[in-house]
Amino acid sequence: MQTNPVVEVKNLTKIFNSLKAVDNISFEMHPGEILGLLGPNGAGKTTTLQMLLALTIPTSGEIKIFGLDLEQNREKILHDVNFSSSYVAMPYSLTVMENLMVFARLYGVHNPQTRIAQLLNDFEAEDVKDKAVRSLSSGQITRVCLIKALLNDPKILFLDEPTASLDPDIADKTRRLLKKVKEEKGMSILYTSHNMREMEEMSDRIIFLDKGTIIAMGRPEEVQAHFKGESLEDVFLKIARRE
Amino acid sequence: MKPHRILALVIRHLYLYKRSIPRLMEVFYWPFLDLVVWGFITIYLTKFKGTLPSFIAFLLGAVILWDILFRSQQGLSVSFLEDMWARNLLNIFVSPISPVEYIFALMLVSIVKLLLASAVMILFAWLFYSFNIFLIGIALIPLIINLVIMGWAMGIVTMALILRLGQEAEVLAWAVAFLFQPVSAVFYPVSVLPPFLQTVAGFIPASHIFEGMRAVISGSGFPISELVWATSLNLTYLTGALIFFYWNFGVVRKKGLLAKVGE
Ligand SMILES: Nc1ncnc2c1ncn2[C@@H]1O[C@H](COP(=O)(O)OP(=O)(O)OP(=O)(O)O)[C@@H](O)[C@H]1O
Ligand SMILES: [Mg+2]
User: Fold this and answer.
1) Mutation pick for ligand 1 pocket among A12, A46, A206 (CB with most ligand atoms within 8 Å)
2) Which residues pair with A68 in a beta bridge?
């Protein structure tokens, strides 16, 4: 791809006390690209995402999003990105609709009602629209959080284990939907998952993190071939178990 | 500052009151009770004409004004806890909102709650006691505004500490105001304190406010100097509290704790 990258990360490092959670990583993400971050527990995936969302300040290194320095252009950049994860929730005593209206206003979405109705339809979630979030299942909450993450038509979507609590049917539909949005709008997605089949299916490229460093980066089949694995799962096990 | 973002959060917090009876009680029932007590005592006091047992009025005035201080502090820190408990802080801080916009929104929430409560009080004062309380109340308004600002300053510091220290600091949301009560001269004048504590009290806006309240109630004129003291201290502390919050927010982002607040 010859277009300017939407995300440029250079020599990014995060040290907590003495632990190098992220150790000098560099990568780029292009418009319309789906980039999968994978790696064992504690590899530094969540820490990387949080630095890209300006939630955590890097120890050193450079993050540029849309060609702009993140720390200096936080407000501008965050307006055009969004985030969801299976570990965030929403105010429990508000209904789904109330919550989504709040976030639509927070992002200054035009015609929030129409936008929400369309996303509820896409995610087959109209039936929970007037229910309090408290009464939803964790998978339903995850779906509502994904709707929230698409409200502002983000140019980049950051997802931390987005499908972790979804049943296989909904997880599959969610993947299709994200791919569809990506096709239609040219949205880029950076996401983490421990589901290797999902990684293969979804990602244009993957980044394999281990102990804070990138040990492999490329198209899923390239990474697989590089490590001489039969599948991405096989590669993962080889690396995690140091074979 | 973007008004639509602030409004979004104000609405988020006001939605909480739509269906929750305990939360509605907090806004309406307690002020209503305050008012009934305050009203009866006023009726009682007017019977004495010249020989007012003013210490009773001092006491009740103190109870009510203390409640305002406590509630404006809570208006901030408890709203913040609501976002933390709902695991909503991450959703908020990945949006373009700035910490100042967030705090500003919570201030507005606390004003809305206070105004609603006051509206109830004024209405019932008019219904039950034909306006008596409202008249006394007018002179207290500048003092009340100062109490609200002091409550905010405490609320912001509490939020900063909860952000930094996590759940262990939650108790501060309920306790912080009481830490200052002994030197706030709420129920007694500053003059009864030992000299050292008198000096400390001089730096607590509330002590000037409660001295002022007693001056208003005892009819000894409007306490301009107390008001000036309280206002200058309050503006200093509010600025200090905001700086403290910003500094803490930075530390929390360095430690990577923003995503883990409350866990
Ligand atoms: N705020 C923090 N303070 C101290 N250490 C932290 C903090 N956040 C993460 N860590 C440490 O940094 C390392 C990377 O954590 P991170 O959450 O990024 O891993 P991850 O790849 O997302 O793992 P998982 O697959 O379990 O979600 C871990 O060793 C973790 O203990
Ligand atoms: Mg993680």
Assistant:
1) A46
2) A65
- Confidence band (pLDDT; 50, 70, 90) for B50? low
What is the interface pTM, i.e. ipTM, of the complex? 0.90
**Taking 70 as the threshold, does the pLDDT of residue B33 lie above it?**
yes
Q: For A100-156, how does the pLDDT look when each residue is reduced to its tens digit (9 = 90+)?
A: 999 999 999 999 999 999 999 988 899 999 999 999 988 889 899 999 999 999 999
CATH of A1-80+156-169+184-243, one of 1.20.1260.10, 1.20.1250.20, 3.30.420.340, 3.40.50.300: 3.40.50.300
By most ligand atoms within 8 Å of CB, the mutation choice from A13, A20, A47, A210 for ligand 1 is A47
Residue whose entry in the numeric block shows the structure tokens 């971050």: A37
Query: What's the burial of A214, exposed, middle or buried (CB within 10 Å: 0-12/13-18/19+)?
Result: buried
> For chain B, how many residues are written?
263
Q: Do A102 and B250 touch (CB under 8 A)?
A: no
Smallest Cβ distance to A16: which of B91, B256, B258? Answer: B256
Tell me which residue has its CA closest to atom 2 in ligand 1.
B256
Please give the Cα distance from A225 to A143 (Å, whole number): 34
Domain ranges for chain A, please list them: 1-80+156-169+184-243, 85-153
pTM: 0.90
Ligand 1 pocket member B96 (CB < 6 A): no
CB atoms within 10 A of CB A210: 19
